[in-house]
Amino acid sequence: MIKNLNICPYPLIENARNSSVLVKDIHFNQNTINIIAGPCAVESEEMIHEIAAYLKQRGISLLRGGAYKPSTSPYGFQGLGKIALNWLKDIKKIYGLGIATEILDVNHLDHLLECADLLQVGTRNMSNYELLKELGKCNKPILLKRGMSARVEEWLLAAEYIIKEGNDQIIFCERGIRTFETYTRNTLDLNAIPLMKELTSFPIIVDPSHGTGKRSLVAPMSLAALAAGADGLLIEIHPNPDQALKDGRQSLNLTEFDTLIEDLKKFSHFANKKFNESLAS
Ligand code: PEP
Ligand code: MN
């Protein structure tokens, strides 16, 4: 609650200026569009190599793959854990890609730090304040997804928790919120992009995969996100989405992703931003 209107509830976020976040050797800032892509979950060694080789050849430098997955149902797939992280470590060495992966539990932090270049805090953990405090003590960029029912102020306060402990390497990610609508998995709140840009100087990217839950909507909402000023996209892809262990319905196959990248490149011209260099060429 704001008691005194002259005091901003998130002073560290508010006072940060021209924030640029470095993930491995990739800059996230307001002049660049970065694409992070990969499967919802790392399912096997073969599939993650196939995706890594594809991304490398496509000029996309950041792979996101889940080793620890939150699942609404206790019977749902929850990731392969340490073995998946070992494969991701190999991917880093072999293909030179940066790795983004989700942290669910503070007890996993040490071994995640050995592999990840970007730690994702998922929608369910945006308000896990003890986790946020620990992430504030580590020297690793954080991808802070918006809680599915979080207001923008609550999202900013979650980031304030991290910064307060010393880590100001934060990229926000709009991933849709729950509304009364049931035809889509979530309602992608594109208002949040220009709004966050008014309120903060931190980079903000959009996840149209969870934001819609429907493969056919991912491309139009990716373009819409860039039009709204997003600094990047997080997109779920899979060599065979119909066989995916998680989130297949919202994952693009590699051909669909290729088409999207070409469309995004054309559009970046209007967004007045440049694609990350390796992708632009
Ligand atoms: C994910 O990125 O696969 C994921 C679980 O995202 P969210 O936390 O936004 O649901
Ligand atoms: Mn997913």
Written description of the protein model:
The chain has 281 residues and is α/β, with parallel strands linked by helices. It has eleven helices and eleven strands. Helix 2 runs parallel beside helix 3 and helix 9 packs parallel to helix 10. The model has no long low-confidence stretch (mean pLDDT 95). Bound molecules: phosphoenolpyruvate and manganese (II) ion (MN). The site of phosphoenolpyruvate has 9 residues, from loops.
Could you provide a short overview of the structure?
The protein has helices spanning 11-15, 45-58, 82-95, 109-113, 129-136, 152-164, 192-199, 208-212, 215-227, 254-271, 277-280, and strands spanning 21-23, 26-28, 32-38, 62-64, 98-102, 118-121, 142-145, 170-174, 204-206, 232-236, 274-275. The chain is α/β, with parallel strands linked by helices and 281 residues long.
| Average pLDDT for all residues | 95
Distance between the termini: 48 Å
Shape: globular
The level of helicity is 25-40%
List keywords for this structure.
alpha/beta; two-stranded antiparallel ribbon; 11 helices; 11 strands; 16% strand; binds phosphoenolpyruvate; binds manganese (II) ion
Topology, please?
Layout: H1 11-15, E1 21-23, E2 26-28, E3 32-38, H2 45-58, E4 62-64, H3 82-95, E5 98-102, H4 109-113, E6 118-121, H5 129-136, E7 142-145, H6 152-164, E8 170-174, H7 192-199, E9 204-206, H8 208-212, H9 215-227, E10 232-236, H10 254-271, E11 274-275, H11 277-280
Parallel strand pairs: 3-4, 3-10, 3-11, 4-5, 5-6, 6-7, 7-8, 8-9
Antiparallel strand pairs: 1-2
